[in-house]
Amino acid sequence: MIYSMTAFARKQREGDWGSLVCEMRSINHRYLEISLHLPEMIRVFDMSIRERIREKIKRGKIECTIRYEAGPNDDGFVFTVNTMLAKELCQASENISQFLKAATPACPTDILRFPGVLVTKESNLEKLEQETMLLLDTTLDELLAARAREGEELKQLFLQRMDLMQGEMHKVRDRLPHIQGEQREKLLKRFSDAKIDLDPTRLEQEMVMFAQKIDVAEEVERTETHITEARRILKQGGIVGRRMDFLLQELNREANTMGSKSVDSILTHAAIEMKVLIEQVREQIQNIE
C-alpha cells in the first residue's frame, strides 16, 4: 500500500478528568517535518509525541494541535501553587521595589509565570500523558487511513498512466520495422528527382549511418524496463515517492531522446504523449510518501 502525504484527522477524548482534542494535518514535504501546538500542561510530552509520530509517518509536513480542558468536578489536573516559592518571589519583588522611585506592585500573573510556581502532581501527569498518547494514536490511525485511501486512488491513476505509456511503446515497436524502408525509398526518390547517380555501396553506407541515427529500439527497451519497474514499485507499496520520482526522470530522458531521433510522425506523437503522461504522474507523485 502507498500513502498520500495529504490528509486531515480530528479526534476527541472525554472523561471525568476533562477533555482532549487532537487535530492533525498532513501535506507534502521532501522530508518529515513535525510542528506541534500544545497547551502548557501537554508541552512536557513534546518528545514522546514526536517519537510516536515518527514511528508511523516517514515523510510529509505534519501539523499537530492538541487542546486540553480540565473536568469541572476533577481537581486532579488543576494547578497548585508552590506557596513557599511564591512568597520568596513576592519578598524579592518588595526588596527590589525599594531601589525604584516609582515602583509598580508585582502582578500576580507575573509571579505565576515564574517556573516552578505552578505545580501538578506527578500521578496526575501520568494519567494525562496516558490519555494524550491514546488520543494521539487514534488520531494517527485516522490520518493514516485517510492517507491510504488517497494513496490507493493515486496508485490506480499511476498504473493507468503506465498502461498508456506501454501502449505508446507498442505503437513505436510496430512502426519501427517500416521506418527504415520508407526512409530509404524517400532518399532514393530525392536522388532520382535531382537526377543524381549514387554508388550503391555508398548508398548502403549512408543508409546504415542514417539508420543508426534514427534507431530508437534501445530507448524503447529502456522505457519498457522503467515502466515495468514502476509497476513493481507501486504494487509493492511502502515509501515509493522518491524512487518513482527518479524513474520519471529516466522516462522523461528516454522520451526526449526518442523525440530528437524521430523522423516519423507516429514516433513524434508517441514521444509527445509520453511526456504528457509523465508530467501528469510527476505532478501527483509529489504527494506520495
Textual characterization of the structure:
The protein has 289 residues and is α+β, with helices and mostly antiparallel strands. The chain folds into 3 domains: 7-77 and 123-149, Ribosomal Protein S5, domain 2; 80-113; 151-285, Butyryl-CoA Dehydrogenase, subunit A, domain 3, CATH 1.20.140. The chain contains 8 helices and 6 strands. The strands form 2 sheets. Strands 1-2-4-3 form a 4-stranded mixed sheet, covered by helices on one side. α1 (46-56) links the parallel β3 (32-37) and β4. The chain is elongated. The termini are close together.
Number of strands: 6
Uncertain regions: pLDDT < 50 for 5+ in a row?
A: none
Task: Report the top-level CATH class of the largest domain.
Answer: Mainly Alpha
What is the terminal-to-terminal distance?
Answer: 11 Å
- The largest beta-sheet arranges its strands as 1-2-4-3
Count of the separate structural domains:
3
List the secondary-structure elements in sequence, H or E: EEEHEEHHEHHHHH
Helix content: 55-70%
* CATH architectural type of the largest domain: Up-down Bundle
Q: Indicate the overall shape.
A: elongated
Assign the CATH topology of the largest domain.
Butyryl-CoA Dehydrogenase, subunit A, domain 3
SSE class? alpha+beta
Q: How many DSSP H or I helices? A: 8
The major beta sheet can be summarized as: 4 strands, mixed
Mean pLDDT: 83
